[in-house]
Amino acid sequence: KNEVEQSPQNLTAQEGEFITINCSYSVGISALHWLQQHPGGGIVSLFMLSSGKKKHGRLIATINIQEKHSSLHITASHPRDSAVYICAVRATGNQFYFGTGTSLTVIP
Amino acid sequence: DAGITQSPRHKVTETGTPVTLRCHQTENHRYMYWYRQDPGHGLRLIHYSYGVKDTDKGEVSDGYSVSRSKTEDFLLTLESATSSQTSVYFCAISPVVSNYGYTFGSGTRLTVV
Fold it and tell me: Is A73 exposed, middle or buried (CB count within 10 Å of its CB: 0-12, 13-18, 19+)?
């Protein structure tokens, strides 16, 4: 049983397309994180959310606590956005759960 | 990543030997975490620390121990390495309150032969 499910697992897009990655979770949470992992392994924290919506450049993250769902949107996608995007939750019991990631490839 | 360093970056060791991985931070963050990342499993929490000498177990703590004697250092020890512990290990840090979540280290690739 996975406490965090992401979809799609793999995504290929043309440069400029609007991209959405979804995350659903089954536990009560205190926060949800979106992480980005580039080829070569480095992991960068993009957002931490506990409610509503956050925007950083071309990235937008939303969360619906009642539906236990979050989305990560990338507007005007670019090949440098190619990476694995990971959804993670900090459960109310202080456990941490991670999705297995969405591998995004943006083609020029 | 700026402010957090993992060492070594790569290590090959034999089954049954002890191994210690080091995470060093210069951000004075309270929380430090050790994760392992394996294909098909994503990131899984091994142990975390919420202060000097304050640690707690994560999801996959069996076979691992940790120590934090100083704010800046968090050590992960495999007492007797097994092949199932071949993985990529990531350290992460976070302050008590953060709008930006974690900062991750660059990872340590450990191979147990």
Answer: middle
Q: pLDDT digits over B71-85, tens only?
A: 999 999 999 999 999
Reduced to 3 states (helix: H, G, I; strand: E, B; else coil), residue A79 is helix
Only one residue has tokens 């993670």, namely A88
* Contact (Cβ atoms closer than 8 angstroms) between residue B109 and residue B7: no
Q: What is the pLDDT of residues A53-89, one digit of tens each?
A: 999 999 999 999 999 999 999 999 999 999 999 999 9
Alpha-carbon B97 to chain mean position: 21
Is B88 near chain A, with CB under 8 Å?
Answer: yes
- In this structure, which amino acid lies at residue B86? T
Interface contact flag, B42 A101, Cβ < 8 Å: yes
Cβ contact (<8 Å) for B101 and A48?
yes
Q: What are the chain A neighbours of B56 within 8 Å (beta carbons)?
A: 94
B102 vs A33, A42, A95: nearest CB: A33
Residue of B nearest to A2 (CA): B41
